[in-house]
Each structure stands twice: as C-alpha cells, then as structure tokens.
C-alpha cells in the first residue's frame, strides 16, 4: 500500500490526513503550527520536520497550503519535495491556487520523474473531515488511474477533468465564482427577510424546501441563524482568496463577471470588518447597515 503525505494540516489538510490514516495509509505530515502537528500525531500520523522529510517517506503527497507561493515553496524550496520524492511518486495539489501557478509547478516538475495531479477540492471543512470531498483532477490518464486509491481515501466524487495541469484549478475558479455568488445572495435575502419581520424558522423552512434550497444555502442559513460566525472551519479569507482567483481569470479571459464581482466586494467588506470570521459573517455587515438581526 502507498505511503501518503500531507503538507498543510489546517481545517482541510487535517481532514485529508484523518481519512488517509483511517483508510490504512501510513501518513507523514508537516505543518508550521505545533498545535496542528500535535493533533496530527494524536490521530496516528507520523510527524515530519520539513516538507522534504514528508517526501522522503511518501509515495503520494497532498499539498494543502493557502496559496501558490506556499505551494511552490514546499515543492521547489531548498528542502522541498522535488529534492526528496522518488521517481514515479506523485504530488497531489489539492490547494486552490491560480491555474497559471499550477502550470508553473507542472513545468517545474518536467524531467524530474515526479508526477502531478492538479486537483483542487470542494466540500469545505465538513467534506474534508468526512472524506466526502468533490475532487476536480487534471492529470495524465495513467497517473490518475495509478493514484485513484489514494484519491478515493479522501474524496467521494472524483472527476477527471482533463490531462493538462491547470485544468483542475480552472474549473475550481469557475465553481467558486458560482458558490460565492450563492453565498452573498443568501446573506442578502436573509437580511431582507429579517428586516421585513419574517421569523428565522419560516425563512429556513421555506428557503430550504424551495427550488432554491441547496447544500450551500441551507448550511449558510443554519450558521447565520445559530449566530455561528467564527470557528466553523470556513474562514472568510479562503473564499475571498478564491474569488480573487476567479476574477483574475475572468479579467485575463475578457469575461465580465458582474455577480461574482459584487460577491467579492461583499466578502471584502466582511473580511475587513471581521477578519476573524467565517463566510457567514458577511451577514453581520449587512445587518449593521439596516439595523436588524437574522435569528430563529
């Protein structure tokens, strides 16, 4: 059985590690946070002192960091994966970064004998912890097939979206533009209902059972009504970062994105006023403007 590695053990990476361990993979991990490393070791993970040490003890390494610069650092740095992974092993890029950055990484691995799967994920903290993520994997067919088992350890719906590195990040950018827009429409509609005197219970029952009901809307409404704005595993900085990627790609492609642009500005307002908060905290910005509160 493959030996697995995870670099980045935050809300998402810790879920990857948990499910790899539960699936029987010997899993080595690294994170700059001592607390995260301790939690990883407590569930049966093998702690490493660097990205390179992870690579030396793994056949497949998940890279779940925050941005492209961090991904490039753990792969190409002095003690990076390119210097420690064996030929025939694979880097599984699950971080959401720019498609151009993923392509840069792919080109940087050319001639190294190290394979790459570009597969950002969707499903957030609950999906990562439960092993039910959706994965948008771009890789050569033989590389994808050879590593299907390790992908299935952490994901439930695994899509082979193309052979070219960067295609995974491209579809993720399109998806995040949609998700961000659904989020902000939910926040605005909830505040409108509250300001108009509609109870939270009626709001939730009608929205969740209507044709507009979906996992994104229902979960967001639940969090808002419970006033669970911090510590739910969906930090606002991540969605804001993802929306900037979506809009950068739209600019490069010459595609107008009116709704996604408005969503990003709402997330910008939430991130500026409540930097400690999760996605749903944008609702508090709107509540403050109109003087109401969305509650059960």
Runs with pLDDT <50, length 5+? none
Strand content: 5-15%
Summarize the helix and strand pattern as letters. EHEHEHEHEHEEHEHHEHHHHHH
Query: What characteristic shape results from the CA principal axes?
Result: globular
Number of helices: 14
Q: Using DSSP, what is the number of strands?
A: 9
* Amino- and carboxy-terminal Cα gap: 49 Å
- Helical percentage: 40-55%
Largest sheet entry: 6 strands, parallel
CATH structural architecture of the largest domain: 3-Layer(aba) Sandwich
Domain count, please report it.
2
**CATH class division of the largest domain:** Alpha Beta
* CATH fold descriptor of the largest domain: Rossmann fold
* Mean pLDDT over all positions: 97
Describe what this molecule looks like in 3D.
- The structure is a single chain.
- With 296 residues, the chain is of the alpha/beta class.
- The protein has 2 domains: 3-164, Rossmann fold (3-Layer(aba) Sandwich), CATH 3.40.50.720; 170-290, N-(1-d-carboxylethyl)-l-norvaline Dehydrogenase, domain 2, CATH 1.10.1040.
- Helix content is 53%, strand content 14%.
- It is built from 14 helices and 9 strands.
- It has a 6-stranded parallel β-sheet, sandwiched between helices. Strands 7-8-9 form a 3-stranded mixed β-sheet.
- Helix 4 runs parallel beside helix 5 and helix 12 packs antiparallel against helix 13.
């Amino acid at each position: 059985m493959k030996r697995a590695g995870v670099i980045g053990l935050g809300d998402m990476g810790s879920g990857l590690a948990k499910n790899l361990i539960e699936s029987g993979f010997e899993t080595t991990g690294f994170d700059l946070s001592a607390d995260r490393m301790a939690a990883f070791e407590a569930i049966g993970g093998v702690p490493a002192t660097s990205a390179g040490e992870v690579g030396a003890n793994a056949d497949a390494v998940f890279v779940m960091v925050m941005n492209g610069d961090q991904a490039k650092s753990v792969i190409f740095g002095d003690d990076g994966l390119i210097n420690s992974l064996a030929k025939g092993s694979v880097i599984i890029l699950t971080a959401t970064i720019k498609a151009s950055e993923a392509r840069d990484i792919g080109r940087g691995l050319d001639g190294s004998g190290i394979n790459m799967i570009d597969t950002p994920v969707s499903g957030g903290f609950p999906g990562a912890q439960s092993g039910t993520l959706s994965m948008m994997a771009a890789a050569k067919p033989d590389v994808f097939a050879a590593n299907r088992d390790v992908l299935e350890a952490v994901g439930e719906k695994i899509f082979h979206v193309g052979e070219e590195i960067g295609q995974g990040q491209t579809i993720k950018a399109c998806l995040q533009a949609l998700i961000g827009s659904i989020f902000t429409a939910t926040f605005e509609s909830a505040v409108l209902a509250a300001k108009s005197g509609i109870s939270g219970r009626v709001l939730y029952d009608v929205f969740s059972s209507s044709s507009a009901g979906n996992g994104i809307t229902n979960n967001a409404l639940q969090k808002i009504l419970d006033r669970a704005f911090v510590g739910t595993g969906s930090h606002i900085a991540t969605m804001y970062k993802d929306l900037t990627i979506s809009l950068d790609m739209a600019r490069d492609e010459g595609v107008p994105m009116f709704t996604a642009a408005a969503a990003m500005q709402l997330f910008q307002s939430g991130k500026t006023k409540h930097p400690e908060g999760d996605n749903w905290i944008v609702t508090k910005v709107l509540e403050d403007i109109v003087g109401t509160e969305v509650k059960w």
